[in-house]
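Z., the sequence and structure:
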Amino acid sequence: LEEPSITVETKRSDKGYDILLTTDTLAKNVYLDLDGVLSDNYFDLLPGRVKRVSFVPNGDGSGQVERIRIISLYDTYSKTDR
Protein backbone atom coordinates (compact mmCIF):
# COMPACT_ATOMS: atom_id res chain seq x y z
CA LEU A 1 0.00 0.00 0.00
CA GLU A 2 1.07 3.55 -0.69
CA GLU A 3 0.89 6.16 2.05
CA PRO A 4 -2.51 7.86 1.73
CA SER A 5 -2.89 11.60 2.06
CA ILE A 6 -6.26 11.89 3.82
CA THR A 7 -7.91 15.29 3.97
CA VAL A 8 -10.63 16.14 6.45
CA GLU A 9 -13.34 18.77 6.35
CA THR A 10 -15.78 19.19 9.23
CA LYS A 11 -19.14 20.90 9.19
CA ARG A 12 -21.58 21.49 12.03
CA SER A 13 -24.86 19.62 11.68
CA ASP A 14 -28.11 19.64 13.65
CA LYS A 15 -26.94 16.90 16.02
CA GLY A 16 -23.17 17.23 15.89
CA TYR A 17 -20.78 17.22 12.94
CA ASP A 18 -20.40 15.88 9.44
CA ILE A 19 -16.86 14.72 8.74
CA LEU A 20 -15.94 14.64 5.04
CA LEU A 21 -12.90 12.55 4.12
CA THR A 22 -11.02 12.26 0.83
CA THR A 23 -7.77 10.56 -0.18
CA ASP A 24 -5.34 10.50 -3.08
CA THR A 25 -4.81 6.73 -2.98
CA LEU A 26 -6.57 3.74 -1.43
CA ALA A 27 -6.70 3.99 2.36
CA LYS A 28 -7.54 0.60 3.89
CA ASN A 29 -9.22 0.13 7.26
CA VAL A 30 -9.57 3.81 8.13
CA TYR A 31 -10.32 4.40 11.81
CA LEU A 32 -11.41 7.72 13.34
CA ASP A 33 -10.29 8.18 16.93
CA LEU A 34 -12.99 10.35 18.54
CA ASP A 35 -14.99 10.19 21.77
CA GLY A 36 -18.64 9.91 20.73
CA VAL A 37 -20.93 8.16 18.29
CA LEU A 38 -19.84 7.80 14.65
CA SER A 39 -22.19 6.71 11.87
CA ASP A 40 -19.38 4.63 10.38
CA ASN A 41 -15.89 3.69 11.46
CA TYR A 42 -13.26 1.26 10.18
CA PHE A 43 -13.85 1.53 6.45
CA ASP A 44 -11.93 1.69 3.17
CA LEU A 45 -11.54 5.15 1.66
CA LEU A 46 -11.38 5.23 -2.13
CA PRO A 47 -9.60 7.92 -4.16
CA GLY A 48 -11.89 10.32 -5.99
CA ARG A 49 -14.80 9.73 -3.60
CA VAL A 50 -15.98 11.68 -0.58
CA LYS A 51 -16.82 9.68 2.54
CA ARG A 52 -19.28 11.39 4.92
CA VAL A 53 -19.35 10.29 8.54
CA SER A 54 -21.75 11.78 11.09
CA PHE A 55 -20.34 12.39 14.55
CA VAL A 56 -22.17 13.14 17.79
CA PRO A 57 -19.62 13.92 20.52
CA ASN A 58 -19.89 12.80 24.13
CA GLY A 59 -20.31 15.76 26.48
CA ASP A 60 -19.98 19.21 24.95
CA GLY A 61 -17.45 17.95 22.38
CA SER A 62 -15.53 21.21 22.39
CA GLY A 63 -12.37 20.88 20.33
CA GLN A 64 -12.71 17.18 19.56
CA VAL A 65 -13.22 17.48 15.83
CA GLU A 66 -10.25 19.81 15.47
CA ARG A 67 -8.04 17.14 17.05
CA ILE A 68 -9.36 14.16 15.09
CA ARG A 69 -6.83 11.34 14.75
CA ILE A 70 -7.09 9.16 11.66
CA ILE A 71 -5.41 5.77 11.44
CA SER A 72 -5.27 3.47 8.42
CA LEU A 73 -3.76 0.06 7.77
CA TYR A 74 -0.72 1.79 6.27
CA ASP A 75 0.01 3.43 9.64
CA THR A 76 0.02 0.11 11.46
CA TYR A 77 2.94 -1.39 9.57
CA SER A 78 4.89 1.52 8.12
CA LYS A 79 5.44 3.84 11.09
CA THR A 80 7.14 2.06 13.93
CA ASP A 81 7.88 5.32 15.78
CA ARG A 82 4.23 5.85 16.83
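The CA atoms of residues 75 and 81 lie 10 Å apart. The helical segments are 73-78.

Let me know what you think.
H.
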